[in-house]
Design brief:
Family: Belongs to the biotin--protein ligase family.
Enzyme class: ligase
CATH architecture of the largest domain: 2-Layer Sandwich
Catalytic activity: biotin + L-lysyl-[protein] + ATP = N(6)-biotinyl-L-lysyl-[protein] + AMP + diphosphate + H(+)
Bound molecules: biotin
Number of helices: 5
CATH topology of the largest domain: BirA Bifunctional Protein, domain 2
Keywords: ATP-binding, Biotin, DNA-binding, Ligase, Nucleotide-binding, Repressor, Transcription, Transcription regulation
Distance between the termini: 38 Å
Helix content: 25-40%
Protein name: Bifunctional ligase/repressor BirA
Radius of gyration: 17 Å
Strand content: 25-35%
Low-confidence stretches: none
Number of domains: 2
Structural class: alpha+beta
Order of helices and strands: EHEEHEEEEHHHEEEEE
């Protein structure tokens, strides 16, 4: 990973740039890093603020030979790799909120967006996008966002080096991706569950279709969905949703 790197100044979104390279046949591990994104995008169609030089805005290509329904596993793998590398780099207590938000004291510090391309039910490639709010100052955030988000610099009281952060992450990701290739999702699931801040706590999940599920997450299913125990004791599988955690 990162042996082929495309460094860009301003770009609409590194996701688009990496997607174009993937369509042209670029190999697995090809990485696009930008100084600034003008139309950075988050999950659920939300914008992702990506000010110039203040964070890690990057996307890389994966070409795993896994069945299409297993793709959510890669999101969880990326979250584990990011969490472990940022904990090591910063010494901060960082946890994962399902599926892949990294939090410090309940505030979001990074985002992961996996977009896949499939043909006839077969996975062609995945573009993994990683945004790390590294050195953003309070003035870089819209005022109402600081209640929910923080940068590593604001949390640790010192700035971090972008290249070192990228290298730490890619090393960790590569190691876990190899492990995943050899042993499957089992070891990743164990690591994810140990870093999760959302297991066994009551929560409210809102799916993209708008239905609401209340219960306590109890773990991950084989394909990577969240297993949620409802108040009536029934365990349901949740593929995609927005998770609200109780205060505190
Ligand atoms: C989220 O938490 O909603 C996911 C945010 C993902 C942001 C990254 S930054 C690099 C890549 N390019 C994008 O446009 N988005 C991802």
């Amino acid at each position: 990973f990162g042996q082929r790197v495309k460094l860009l100044g301003a770009v609409d979104s590194t996701q688009n740039a990496a997607q174009r390279l993937a369509e042209e046949g670029a190999p697995e591990g090809t990485l696009v890093v930008a100084e600034q994104q003008l139309q950075g995008r988050g999950r659920m169609g939300r914008p992702w603020i990506s000010p110039k030089g203040k964070g890690v805005w990057m996307s890389f290509i994966l070409r795993p030979s896994i069945p299409l329904p297993f793709t959510p596993q890669l999101t969880l793998l990326a979250a584990v790799a990011l969490c472990r590398s940022l904990r090591r780099l910063t010494g901060l207590d960082i946890g994962i909120k399902w599926p892949n938000d990294l939090l410090i004291d309940g505030k979001k510090i990074s985002g992961i967006l996996l977009e896949s391309s499939a043909e006839e039910e077969r996975l062609k490639y995945v573009v993994a996008g990683i945004g790390i709010s590294l050195n953003l100052d309070a003035s870089d955030y819209p005022p109402d966002m600081l209640a929910k988000a923080v940068s590593l610099k604001l949390a640790a009281g010192r700035p971090f080096d972008r290249s070192e952060t990228i290298a730490e992450f890619l090393n960790e990701f590569e190691e876990l991706y190899l492990l995943y290739g050899e042993e499957g999702f089992g070891p990743i699931r164990t690591l994810w569950e140990a870093l999760s801040v959302s297991l066994d706590k009551p929560c409210v999940l809102t799916t993209p279709q708008g239905s609401v599920i209340e219960g306590s997450p109890v773990g991950l299913a084989d394909t990577g969905e969240l297993l949620v125990k409802r108040e009536d004791g029934k365990v349901v599988h949740v593929f995609s949703a927005e998770m609200g955690l109780p205060e505190g």
